[in-house]
Amino acid sequence: MAILYWLHLPEETDVLTQGYVGVASDLTKRLRSHKHRFKTLWDRIVVKQLLVSTKEYCLFIEEKLRPSRGIGWNSSSGGLHNNRMCGYDNPNKDKFGEQAPNFIGWYITPLGQFDRPEDAARLHNCALTTITRRCKGRIVNGKFLPPKEGYAFKQKVVG
């Protein structure tokens, strides 16, 4: 579920041309980020929930209320998140490991070979950065420390 909301000043009455219209799955969390952006006005801002529905429908209505850039306080058109593709439209959504377009290689550890350092870290019960350092090595004080024994990184061959 998502919430379509309108932030505005008390004297503003037109949702089509004034204030800020947005969509959030967690309105409290989203309002905290708005509080930083609108800090000089925050004491006076009125928060009004316009609609509670599916994310897709809320984005659809937001696009109707903010069809182009620069309407009210919105800097981008509605339905878009900073002009990026929404998750359900993104052809790479839910692609991880070797299927992901940004796949760079395999992390080899004593417990196996992994497409993602996140998977290796979970199995080894350590941080992602620990797996990356153990497999790829690192530079400390200008000196390269090689990968830990039993760990390696096998880079994807492009071609």
Record keyword descriptors for this entry:
159 residues, 4 helices, 3-stranded antiparallel β-sheet, alpha+beta
Model description:
The chain has helices at residues 27-37, 55-65, 117-124, 128-136, and strands at 2-8, 20-24, 46-53, 105-109, 112-114, 138-140, 143-145, 152-155. 14% of the residues are buried. The strands form three sheets. The protein has a three-stranded antiparallel beta sheet, covered by helices on one side. It has a three-stranded antiparallel beta sheet with strand order 5-4-8, covered by helices on one side. Helix 3 (117-124) packs across helix 4 (128-136). The chain is elongated. It has four helices and eight strands. The model has no long low-confidence stretch (mean pLDDT 86). The chain has 159 residues and is an alpha+beta fold. It folds into two domains: 2-89, no CATH class; 97-155, no CATH class.
Overall pLDDT metric? 86
Task: Provide the structure class.
Answer: alpha+beta
Query: What is the H/E order?
Result: EEHEHEEHHEEE
- Strand count: 8
Order the strands across the largest sheet as they lie in space.
2-1-3
The dominant shape is elongated
How many strands, which pairing sense, and closed or not: the largest β-sheet? Answer: 3 strands, antiparallel
Percent helix? 10-25%
Low-pLDDT residue intervals, each spanning 5 or more residues: none
- Supply the number of helical segments: 4
- Beta-strand portion reads 15-25%
Q: Rg to the nearest angstrom?
A: 23 Å
Termini separation (Å)? 43 Å
Instruction: Provide the domain count.
Output: 2
